[in-house]
């Protein structure tokens, strides 16, 4: 009886196990424009301070997100909201929001790495993301795991949104 239960437990865990790195995130960045975004994002890549693409991304270091956007109007007063999601967990194979207790909400985007103002037209933008200010959150995250980051910019005057979601394998510990 105990052998049968052990075998059943192994088979059940194999059948219901989550892919440890969804959407190919074990080897490459996966990104998309949020459905609520008013601004089309044509391309997105992440580099380090030396402008070299990095993968996995290192959340303990400054990241530079390079976007090509087609912006319909000028934006000067921009709010930034960031959501972090982890993969898997007890409730199934899906993304689960990591509580940040408001630390990553309603930020002044122009003071958090966004080059302001953002002018109308098709253009390349480079956004600096520095999670070192939020070391307590980053240190609580599992190292070498997949994370999904939603980066949402909202014009306070027009309420128009520019939003992207990036899914990536991430390092959260400082490498020696």
From TrEMBL:
<feature type="domain" description="MD-2-related lipid-recognition">
    <location>
        <begin position="29"/>
        <end position="169"/>
    </location>
</feature>
<dbReference type="Pfam" id="PF02221">
    <property type="entry name" value="E1_DerP2_DerF2"/>
</dbReference>
<dbReference type="InterPro" id="IPR014756">
    <property type="entry name" value="Ig_E-set"/>
</dbReference>
<keyword id="KW-0732">Signal</keyword>
<protein>
    <submittedName>
        <fullName>(pine wood nematode) hypothetical protein</fullName>
    </submittedName>
</protein>
<dbReference type="InterPro" id="IPR003172">
    <property type="entry name" value="ML_dom"/>
</dbReference>
<feature type="signal peptide">
    <location>
        <begin position="1"/>
        <end position="17"/>
    </location>
</feature>
